[in-house]
Q: What sequence folds into this?
């Protein structure tokens, strides 16, 4: 482990089939007015909405509905949520849904009492939040983003074709999150596997950086092995509680700041994937799967020691008689085979990307400088072309 750091995570998690029983106790910490945030209606079909509303009513809460949070929430929706929060002086934002609802709730929490345009201030200029912040609670129904225990809030502006992920500080982490793996049974397979790859990529984004011996790498190798195993079980039988509960817990630990400790972290696949998202509105995890292999094959020569470790420790590649480069490439080939096996999108063209968009997508990809290779514009363009 290198350097100085502080570790703290303020989110209280309630996990398991009975997790919702903890909601009443959590609600007792807040005032009467609850903004109930949810998406396009999946929670009404699977009954989670009715359960949550019953608990809110029993607790004597006034409910302010904020429905229709879309996957990849937009700046227009964010402004609408802020208006609901402000006009009603709500005391708590309760998000019931996936990463989009949780991210959006954090955006509203930071922005509702902002005196300026919050998109410009908090997402484009990334300024510190200097207005009152509303508390957020989450009931998670989709697994992947880690939003239930982090400060991430990704908002899309279709007019400027920018999808920006703001990583807020601890004051914006959810105060509590309810994690019942059974809630994820009703996810369509496409969403389930997209979430699985989102988890994998959160881990590799942090793993592929640095060259010291770091405890976080060992933690991540364990998480990835568990993820590969559980993903296969969940694809085989989506109602396998053991597998779904492991996936839920891995997702949380993949992006709740722990495994980043001691790591420089990369995040370049996410930067390219987010720009793809701004142009296509495609499912987040699939934007990552489509660009990952060309990207990792491109940077492998600059971080070959880590790609070798990944191949041997995560994918059980046998190293005897092979060069480090060959071992690393074998690891990526094993990952590619697994990605195809579970049914991920492997080509940008399958997400609606057309050749004429590539220049703009490359322009919109923020360049990070802490991975193995700082990419030039042309390299991003080449990776995009190879991903088609
Ligand atoms: O809107 P509803 O009807 O609820 O349907 C949703 C949505 O269509 C559906 N769904 C969710 N739970 C379900 C369900 N359908 C049936 N049964 C259930 N139990 O799934 C669809 C996708 O939901 P969404 O919340 O959009 O997915 P996800 O959790 O992948 O969130 C994606 C957003 O999170 C951002 C992404 O960029 C994207 O905007 N991210 C947030 C991060 C963070 N906070 O740290 C990091 C990630 O890298 C990511 O960028
Ligand atoms: Zn992600």
A:
């Amino acid at each position: 482990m290198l350097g100085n750091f502080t570790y703290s995570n303020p989110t209280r998690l309630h996990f398991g089939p009975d997790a919702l029983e903890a909601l009443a106790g959590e609600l007792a910490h807040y005032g009467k007015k609850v903004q109930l945030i949810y998406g396009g209606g999946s929670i009404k079909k699977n009954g989670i909405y009715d359960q949550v509303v019953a608990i809110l009513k029993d607790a004597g809460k006034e409910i302010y509905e904020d429905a229709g949070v879309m996957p990849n929430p937009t700046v227009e929706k964010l402004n609408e949520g802020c208006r609901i929060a402000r006009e009603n002086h709500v005391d708590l934002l309760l998000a019931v849904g996936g990463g989009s609802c949780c991210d959006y709730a954090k955006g509203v929490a930071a922005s509702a009492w902002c005196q300026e345009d919050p998109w410009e201030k908090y997402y484009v200029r990334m300024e510190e939040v200097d207005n009152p912040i509303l508390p957020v609670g989450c009931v998670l129904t989709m697994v992947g983003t880690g939003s239930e225990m982090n400060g991430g809030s990704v908002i899309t502006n279709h007019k400027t074709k920018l999808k920006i992920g703001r990583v807020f500080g601890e004051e914006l982490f959810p105060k509590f999150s309810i994690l019942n793996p059974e809630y994820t049974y009703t996810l369509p397979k496409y969403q389930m596997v997209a979430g699985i790859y989102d988890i994998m990529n959160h881990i590799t984004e942090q793993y592929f950086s640095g060259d010291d011996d770091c405890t976080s790498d060992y933690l991540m190798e364990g998480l990835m092995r568990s993820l590969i195993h559980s993903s296969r079980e969940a694809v085989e039988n989506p109602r396998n509680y053991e597998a779904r509960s492991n996936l839920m817990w891995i997702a949380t630990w993949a992006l709740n700041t722990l495994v980043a400790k001691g790591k420089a972290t990369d995040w370049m696949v996410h930067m390219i994937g987010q720009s793809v998202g701004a142009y296509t509105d495609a499912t987040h995890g699939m934007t990552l799967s489509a660009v990952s292999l060309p990207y990792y094959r491109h940077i492998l020569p600059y971080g070959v020691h880590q790609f070798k470790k990944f191949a041997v420790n995560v994918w059980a590649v046998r190293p005897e008689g092979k060069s480090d480069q060959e071992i690393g490439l074998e690891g990526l080939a094993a990952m590619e085979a697994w990605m195809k096996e579970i049914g991920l999108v492997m080509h940008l063209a399958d997400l609606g990307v057309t050749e004429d968009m590539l220049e703009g997508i490359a322009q919109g990809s923020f360049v990070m400088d802490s991975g193995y290779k700082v990419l030039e514009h042309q390299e991003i363009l080449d990776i995009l072309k190879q991903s088609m």
